[in-house]
Write a structure and sequence with these properties.
The protein is of the alpha+beta class. It has five helices and five strands.
Length: 185
């Protein structure tokens, strides 16, 4: 295993740190498996953190747990990230694709909707947005046409290698939009 500091072209405005972790299996000539870990230092976690068992499909038993964000925190951060990148797309004309954020939100609502505590979610989301100086008025703010065109164009590129039987972009957005509208009412 190797760990190297990962640096973007421009420093993160909040002082975020990033690291590239690479793993080398015995049959590899060099480390190949890569994971990027990003650590934000300036943003507070607002909901309680939970301990969850590690889920896996390996034959051996792993009796361990990890600390995880509350699902509501993840939803709020993904929505906030979409708003941040809308601004970047507008100012620079390009941005990293937010395909993962839209897909992850769709998966969370599809698999864990009944576990979400969305009471007081709008003020909570506004507080998360204030940490990055972004805001919203309606659910439509999370689905601007320019962003959606860009995400649709990069959908297969960003998600195809990660998600077997990837649903189509239009399916995900079509199902996600009313769910975002519902939580913002």
């Amino acid at each position: 295993m190797t760990c190297e500091r990962y640096t973007e072209k421009e420093p993160h405005p909040g002082g975020q740190e990033a690291f590239a972790i690479r793993g080398q299996l015995p049959w590899h000539r060099q480390p190949q498996a890569r994971v990027i870990i990003e650590v934000s230092l300036d943003e507070r976690v607002l909901r309680p953190v939970h301990r969850k068992a590690i889920l896996h499909e390996y034959d051996e038993s792993i009796d361990a747990s990890v600390s995880v964000y509350a699902l509501e925190e993840i939803v709020a951060e993904k929505l906030r990230a979409i708003l941040q990148h809308i601004e970047k797309l507008e100012s620079r004309g390009w941005s990293r694709s937010r395909a993962r954020d839209y897909y992850d939100l769709w998966r969370i609502f599809g698999a864990y909707k009944n576990e979400l505590d969305l009471a007081g979610f709008v003020p909570f989301l506004r507080e998360k947005c204030m940490a990055r100086n972004v805001g919203f008025t309606t659910a439509a703010d999370f689905f601007p046409e320019k962003m959606l065109l860009y995400v649709e164009k990069t959908w297969e590129q960003w998600l195809g290698p990660l998600v077997p039987q990837l649903p189509g972009f239009q399916t995900i957005i079509g199902e996600l939009r009313p769910q975002i509208e519902a939580i913002l009412q």
